[in-house]
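Could you help me review a protein record that somebody else here produced? This is what I was given.
***
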Amino acid sequence: MANEEALKLFYALSTHALTRTSAGWAHERAMHGRLGLGGAVSISHGTTTERIQSSTNLLPGTLAGLKQASANGSFYWIPSVANFPGINSVLGNGDHIYTIQATIAEKHRSPAEGIQKVWVQLLPEIRRSFTWHFVVIADRRSTAETYVEKFTEEMDSFTLGTSRESVQVWAGVL
């Protein structure tokens, strides 16, 4: 199935739409479209700005689908069955793993539990060989930057697996 059709099916069957406002769901769908169909998103942390390239390798949204992630290529994964608190998707690109949250809300839960769950599901060679990131994709720069400030401190002393791994926190705006 083509990625565009797969995303349409995900949107139609997802219960996630029931947990968000209409505007929040539209924002999340826009993010998935950008990161799963081609394109790029600019992200920043303080004065550092980077662009993350989307992946056209859309993995199935099951836990088994996430285990199909390869260390040799890019991928985009959207959980369709299990709940990953604070995480809407995962982008693997180069030697980076981006756990991503789309939000327009002023308050949002921590991504810590969701990032831990992603860590457990990925193959060991991917877990340790990739640099880990958490990206908040918001509708306004001020909202995104508030989350960067909030979650940077938490992610600085974060533990993935049995070791302390740094998770870089970024802001993006759609």
